[in-house]
Amino acid sequence: MQNTTQSTQVKFFDFVTTGVGYINDLRVISKQGGLACKITALVGDANAEPQDKYRFLQLNVTGKLANAQMAVVKKAMDAGKRIFVSFSVGELRPHEFTYEKGEKAGQKGLSLKGRLIKLNYAKADKDVIDLPTIASLAPSAPVEQGTQLVEKPVDTEVPATPPAVEQTAVVLVENEEETFV
What we know:
Helices cover 11% and strands 41% of the residues. It is built from 2 helices and 7 strands.
């Protein structure tokens, strides 16, 4: 007789997208003890006028890698520097709200919420920030498929300009129970 066990891992498809923008309002979520931030993402043709087209993202920072990266970024933010990043976000979804202040007070607005999975690139003002990688977090730990982000090798040369916004992708990741702000 063969003894079989059933896996209790729940897997799901996650909509992941990448972009570039500025990190704002990095804070600790008191109830959960985790981090959250706002990113003002740039959209549209970089050569067109006006160049300042934005989408506002409210994100929970998830996973060991993203939390370690945000700890490094927080030091630069505390020094008063403006942080420009290339980022990966999962579970992006719309969130309706009502403006409470200003000339739009009482009007409905729309923002996007999601999970910050990782930072691909970061600059504090014009200085490149050396971000932790998966390898630097657990150099001797084996990587299991589907349970960790697998980092691709990258050139050691830092590009003069931030990377362009990439297309979206769907990946299979392990389900994590979370509460969103």
